[in-house]
Amino acid sequence: MLKLQIPKNRMNYLIKQIPLHFDAIRLEQGWEYYHKGRVTEVDLKGLSVLATVTSKQVHKVEVHLENFAASTCTCSFEGFCQHIGATFFSLYAAYGRAELVLQQLKQQIHTRKKPARSAAASVIQERKAAAQANVPLEESMPSDWHRFFEGKFHGFSISHQHSIETFYESALESLPPYAANWRDTTRELYMFHIVLFMMRKIEQFYQETKSSYLSYYHENGCKISAKNCEDKLVEYVDRIDVNRSFVAEPKIWLSSMKMVGESALQGKDSPVDWLFVYRFIWWKLTDQPSAQKEEIARLDGLLAKKELLPKKKDTLLAARAHFDIMQGHTEQAFERLGQLAHPHAKDFFLYLNKFASDGQWDHMLVWLRWLFPSITNANHDDFRTFCQYWLDTTKHLANDSEWVQVMESLLPRSYYYYTAYLLQTKRYRQWVDLQLANRISPLNLYGMELKAIEEHDSALLLPLYHQAAERAVLEKNRASYKTAVRLLKKLHSIYKHIGQDDRWEHYIYRLADKFSRLRAFQEELKKGKWIR
C-alpha cells in the first residue's frame, strides 16, 4: 500500500474538512476500502492528490488540498463517497493509525448531527459564547484571556495520538496574532498566558484519557507537548524585563502568579512539571518583596492545615523552601526539605543549573552533598544529570577525592562514569581494579581503552586477561574454550612484550594441569601449540 506524505498543515486541513462533508456510515466504508488495500497509485499533482480506488469498478479520485469541497470521484454517488474517504485514510497513514482518527471523526460527525430539538439551543449557546469571547482585550485580566482561549478550543478532544500535537501547534499559531498591536508589556504577558493555557489544557487531556486503552500514546504525547510548553515558557519569560514589567502591569502579574499557584500547588499527577514552572517564575520576581511576603503567608497557611496528602505536602514544602533559597537561607531550606516524604533529585536540578550558570561552585557543592542520599533511587536520566553536575563541579575544586569517593559509593550504577574518569585522569591501575571487581572481560571493553593502558604499562593488563580466560574455561563448553584461547593468545603476547616468556611457560602448564580433565580444552591448547 503506497503512502504519500503530504505537508502536515494540509493534513490538518483535511481532518477539519472531513466531518463537514461526510456521514459516519460513508466514512467507515472509506476506511474499510483503505484497510483492504483498495487504494493504489496515489500521487500528488499541484494542490491535488490523485488516486485509484478499486471496488466493483475502478474509480479515479481527486482530493483538493486547498478546497476540499471541490474534490471529485468518477463513481455515480452524488456527494462525498467512500472512495474519497479511502483516499483520505491512505494519506493519513503516513502520520498515524487510520482506525484511531476514524473514531475521532465519527464522534465529531455525530456531535454535528444532534437531534433538531437540541440544535436551536446549541446555536443560541454558541452565539452567547461567541459574544462573550469575541476577541481578547488588552485591558482585560488573565482570567478573561483564558475564557477566550477556552472558547477558541471548545470541544477539542484527544482521540488519537497526534491530536495533542495538533492542539499545541494550533494554539501557538492562532492565538498570538490577537495581541499583535498591544503594548509590549501586556503582549509579553499575553504570550506567557498562551503557554500557561496550553499547559493546563494538556493536563486536562492527560486526566481525561488516563483510563483509555490508548493511554500510553496519549500520555507520551502529553509529556512531549508539556516539555515543549515548559521550554517555550522559559523562552518567553527570559525575554521579559520582569522588574519593568511588574511595575507596568502589577495586577496582571499578581493575577498570573495566583493562577500558576492554583495549578502548581495541588501535588497531583501531571505531565507538566508545575513545581519547576512555579519556582522558575518566582525566582524572576526576586526584587518584589511585598509579593513574596504575601505568597509566603499563603504557603504557611496551607502548610498549617491538617491531614494534607503526602504529595501535596511535599509540593508545598518545596515551594516554601524556594523562598528561603531566594532569600539566601539555605540551611533553613534544607531543614524544610528534610520533611519531604518522597524527595526526588530532579526537583532540585533547577538550583544546580542556576549555580552552574552563575559559576557558584561552592553553592553547587553544598547542594550536591545534600542531594546524594536521594540520588540512589533516581531514574537513569536523573542519575546521569547528577553525575555530570558533580563532574563539572570537580573541575573547580582543589582535588577530585570527593568525586572519586562519590563514584565508588554509587557503584555499580556509576560504573560508566567512573571508568571513563579514571581513563581520562590516567589512573590505569585503578581502572584495571574496577574491571576486575566487576568481572568485565577485555573482549567487552573498547580497544582504544586497552591500547591506552598497554602503551602506558602493558603488565597492568595481565590480571585482567588471567581472570577472563579462567572464567571462560569454567563455563565448560567448546565455544567458551575457543574464547579462552583468544584471551590466552593476547596474554602470551603481553608476556612476550615485557620479556617474561619463562613466566608464561610456567603459567600455561599450570593452567593445563589445573584443567587436565577437560579434554576439549586440552585439545584447544594443543591447537595453539602451547602444550604437547
Draw up the topology in text.
Layout: H1 8-21, H2 24-35, E1 39-45, E2 48-54, E3 58-64, E4 72-73, H3 82-92, H4 98-112, H5 116-132, H6 142-152, H7 163-174, H8 184-208, H9 215-239, H10 242-248, H11 250-264, H12 274-284, H13 289-303, H14 310-326, H15 330-337, H16 349-358, H17 361-375, H18 380-394, H19 401-409, H20 415-424, H21 428-437, H22 447-457, H23 462-473, H24 478-497, H25 501-514, H26 519-527
Antiparallel strand pairs: 1-2, 2-3, 3-4
Structure in words:
The protein is mainly α and 532 residues long. Among the domains are: 8-114, no CATH class; 140-270; 426-527, no CATH class. Helix content is 66%, strand content 4%. It is built from 26 helices and four strands. The chain has a four-stranded antiparallel beta sheet with strand order 1-2-3-4, with helices on one face. Strand 2 and strand 3 (58-64) form a beta hairpin. Helix 7 runs antiparallel to helix 8, helix 10 (242-248) packs across helix 11 and helix 14 runs antiparallel to helix 15. The longest helix has 25 residues, at 184-208. InterPro entries: Znf_SWIM (IPR007527). Keywords: Metal-binding, Zinc, Zinc-finger. This is SWIM-type domain-containing protein.
